[in-house]
Specification:
Helix content is 84%, strand content 0%. By secondary structure, it is an all-alpha fold. The protein has 2 domains: 98 residues; 45 residues.
């Protein structure tokens, strides 16, 4: 009887150590993926900063072009000026538009990748099965007795299981 109790406690310790190792691995995996995502976000921020700088230079060039048009000796009609400005703006905005579309595609790709990794993590966590009862007793018996007002010590003695196991079952089922 004493040898069985020792083996039982020894097996519980192995289960707990293995579960702790799996949880630590999952935490490490989430941390490393979070750092990868942060790195990707920083690179996107850098690209956005470059685009803002380019927009600033294009606006300045547009102002200089408008000033040059106003100073030119040959007078263009207002329609010609607007057409020239539209053409210049289109030529300046087109590369920005393409870059923004590329950024949007990159963001969508990152989002899909993050969602798939999260799904993998969730499925991995769901696959970790916590034994419903390490000793094989029904959780329902423990829950039923506890709801009837029976103390944890009494349940432990009555079902021949340890007090921490009874508390574990009650905590897992969010009763205590």
């Amino acid at each position: 009887m004493n040898l069985e109790n020792f083996n039982f406690n020894f097996n519980i310790e192995y289960v707990i150590v293995i579960m702790a190792a799996v949880i630590l691995y999952l935490l490490y995996y989430v941390y490393s993926k979070d750092s990868d995502s942060s790195r990707n976000i920083r690179s996107i921020a850098s690209v956005v900063e470059d685009l803002n700088r380019e927009i600033f230079y294009l606006k300045r060039e547009l102002k200089e072009t408008e000033a040059a048009i106003k100073k030119s000796p040959s007078r263009m009609s207002d329609d010609e000026i607007y057409q020239e400005i539209e053409r210049s703006v289109y030529d300046m905005v087109q590369p920005l538009s393409l870059a923004l579309k590329q950024i949007q595609n990159n963001l969508n790709t990152i989002e899909v990748e993050i969602e798939s990794r999260m799904a993998q993590l969730e499925s991995g966590v769901k696959q970790i099965s916590i034994p419903s009862s390490i000793h094989g007793n029904d959780d329902e018996k423990i829950i039923s007795l506890f709801k009837q007002g029976v103390s944890v010590e009494t349940i432990s003695k009555e079902l021949h299981i340890s007090k921490p196991e009874v508390e574990f079952v009650l905590k897992i089922n969010k009763i205590k």
